[in-house]
C-alpha cells in the first residue's frame, strides 16, 4: 500500500482511503472512494453516498467556485498546473432516476499538474466504459493504478495517449 500523501492530481491517499480533494484540513469538502461508492464529505453534514451502480458515462473535472462556470475546464498555467485555488467539481450523470450530479471538492495547498488531472479523468472514464468503476473502492488497487499513472513528464498529451495510459494502468493494477 502507498503512504499517505500519494497523489494523482486532486486524488490523494489519506488515512487509508483515496479521495478527490483535501481531506487534511478542517472544514473542507472532498469525495471519498469507498467500497460501496463515492461519498461526498462536507462540513456540518452527514454527507451523501453515490453507489457505483448509479454512475453513468460523462465524468469530468472542472475548476472554480461554481459548477456551472463554462470557462472552468481549461484553467491551467503556462507551467502546466491547475490555475486558481477555488476548488473543483467532479461531474457525472446518475441513473435511476437520471440526474446530473456535481460533487464539490477543495483543492490541496500543493499545485496539481494538468497532466495528472487529465490522467485521473481518463482513468475514471475508462473504468466507467468497462463497467469496473467499483475497483475504485479498493484502496490497494487504486494505489497500483496511481503508481502507474503518476510521475513522468508534464507535457501536452493527446486523447489517444491518455486513453492508452488509463488502459495500461488498469491492466497493471489488476495483474
Report low-confidence residues grouped into runs of 5 or more.
none
Shape: globular
Order of the strands making up the biggest sheet? 1-2-3-4-5-6
| Helix content, binned percent | 10-25%
Number of strands: 9
Q: What portion of the residues fall into strands of 2 or more residues?
A: 15-25%
Descriptors for this entry?
globular, alpha+beta, single chain, 25% helix, 9 strands, 24% strand, 6-stranded antiparallel beta sheet, 175 residues
Care to describe what's here?
- It is a single chain.
- The chain is of the alpha+beta class and 175 residues long.
- It has helices spanning 114-129, 139-149, 159-174, and strands at 7-8, 11-14, 17-20, 30-34, 37-41, 48-51, 60-63, 88-94, 99-105.
- A hairpin with a 2-residue loop joins strand 2 (11-14) and strand 3 (17-20).
- The longest helix has 16 residues, at 114-129.
- It is globular and about 40 Å long.
- The two termini are 15 Å apart.
